[in-house]
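lol forgot to send this yesterday, sorry. struct tokens for the thing we talked abt
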């Protein structure tokens, strides 16, 4: 467990990039030793305090004392999202509810939400890691931090909130919604940092432009964006329209919330905080480990969580890992952009497609706005994708058909699938105030095997 005092070790050197220099630049061999010691504790915590985990470990023939090297991680059973749902609400907690300090929940794909719990120490660790994350993204003590992540059961709002306070920032708890007011607050309070989903950051940019406010002339310098997949093209668009450096930040409620991994100023992969999490990438079909640099499903084991220790949690997120040294000096590995999830992958006439790939095409095209909806239907035995896009303001309606043709052509040549494209007038695609709903899946549910 990271002690509160770690924050006291904050680097006051002129570079000032590291909030926890000791941890962030720890030599990798030393990091591995720390991980092994913490892994043992985490497995012990899960084994001793969570009956379901104890049963799983027994079935796998592993006891906490068997963890002698980091390679022994491979012997541990995986945990999946449905485990949380099956033990709803508190069955996976390693502490009695009365011993917790907070509960969060994320919307389950079906039925019950996924509930996660934190002890007071867990909240301290989270605030420390989120403070480190913000600092890594480029935030500095004294910065006004406009937090447009939703407050509530979603971990984004409160996660960024307490991290910003701990980092020494001046937090503006704006939450999502009332976009026009958000623009005014950003301008009036002189926010230097904006925290939001990338799609909501674009909605803010659009609202500002419509009301004649030039956010490029505001004090904004750093965007801390995450919680949904986005592309390099979308990053460039956001940077140009908001006049800031857009930083990618990854996390998930099941292992903590935001603050698991974040880019540094190099914008070349997100440093995963390895003193608190173990990262693996596996082949989602064979469950075997993938080599460094190979794309696969990210699996995370928590090393310091008390209330909800997670052993080999299958995130369903597709990424690649790099342990190559980073120019920033941090030694923690990097997760390359999360390309999508192994469960939102579409198969269109044999081609595997992530919505983010189509987005990358759309955001790069000149006459359309970066708002879109993919409608997936089953036609016979094949999946078919229709794409609804929006013309930019001022583009005449007579051009819509030609644009649609152009967009379909680009998607075909860059992603490899044929799509029906409809161009809509500006403002017609619903805007998100949180995570964007980009895909409407109208396919019949899969039939169970007879
Ligand atoms: O989205 C936590 C978070 C809040 C992260 C704010 C970053 C900023 P959940 O609601 O549990 O938690 O959703 C987690 O969102 O498994 C990914 O599929 C997706 N996701 C999160 N960050 C990114 C990202 C929060 N930077 C799920 N890029 C994860 C791509 C992301 N996908």
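and heres what i got for the seq, position by position
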């Amino acid at each position: 467990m990271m002690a509160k005092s770690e924050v006291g070790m904050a680097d006051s050197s002129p570079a000032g990039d590291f909030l926890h220099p000791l941890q962030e630049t720890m030599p990798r061999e030393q990091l591995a030793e720390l991980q092994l010691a913490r892994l043992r504790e985490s497995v012990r915590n899960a084994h001793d305090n969570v009956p379901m985990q104890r049963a799983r470990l027994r079935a796998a023939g592993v006891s906490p004392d068997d963890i002698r090297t980091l390679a022994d991680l491979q012997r541990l059973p995986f945990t999946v999202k449905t485990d949380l749902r099956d033990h709803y609400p508190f069955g996976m907690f390693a502490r009695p509810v009365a011993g917790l300090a907070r509960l969060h929940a994320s919307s389950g794909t079906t039925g019950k939400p996924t509930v996660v719990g934190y002890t007071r120490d867990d909240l301290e660790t989270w605030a420390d890691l989120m403070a480190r994350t913000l600092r890594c993204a480029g935030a500095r003590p004294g910065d006004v931090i406009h937090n447009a992540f939703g407050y509530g059961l979603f971990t984004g709002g409160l996660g960024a909130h307490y991290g910003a306070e701990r980092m020494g920032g001046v937090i503006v708890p704006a939450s999502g919604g009332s976009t026009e007011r958000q623009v005014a607050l950003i301008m009036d309070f002189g926010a230097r940092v904006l925290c939001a989903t990338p799609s909501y950051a674009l909605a803010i940019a659009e609202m500002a432009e419509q009301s004649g406010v030039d956010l490029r002339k505001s004090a904004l310098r750093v965007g801390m964006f995450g919680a949904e997949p986005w592309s390099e093209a979308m990053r460039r668009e956001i940077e140009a329209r908001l006049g800031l450096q857009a930083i990618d930040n990854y996390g998930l409620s099941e292992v903590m919330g935001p603050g698991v991994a974040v880019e540094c100023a190099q914008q070349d992969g997100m440093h995963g905080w390895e003193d608190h999490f173990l990262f693996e990438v596996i082949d989602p079909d064979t469950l075997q480990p993938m080599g460094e640099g190979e794309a696969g499903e990210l699996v995370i084991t928590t090393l310091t969580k008390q209330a909800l220790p997670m052993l080999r949690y299958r995130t369903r997120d597709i990424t690649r890992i790099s342990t190559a040294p980073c120019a920033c000096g941090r030694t923690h590995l990097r997760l390359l952009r999360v390309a999508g999830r192994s469960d939102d992958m579409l198969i269109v006439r044999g081609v595997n497609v992530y919505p983010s790939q189509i987005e990358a095409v759309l955001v790069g095209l000149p006459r359309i706005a970066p708002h879109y909806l993919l409608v997936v239907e089953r036609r016979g035995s094949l999946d078919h994708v229709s794409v609804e896009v929006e013309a930019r303001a001022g583009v005449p309606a007579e051009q819509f058909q030609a644009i649609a043709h152009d967009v379909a052509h680009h998607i075909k040549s860059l992603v490899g699938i044929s799509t029906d494209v409809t161009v809509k007038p500006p403002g017609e695609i619903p805007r998100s105030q949180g995570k964007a709903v980009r895909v409407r899946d109208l396919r019949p549910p899969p039939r169970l095997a007879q």
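The chain has a mean pLDDT of 90. anyway ping me if u want another try
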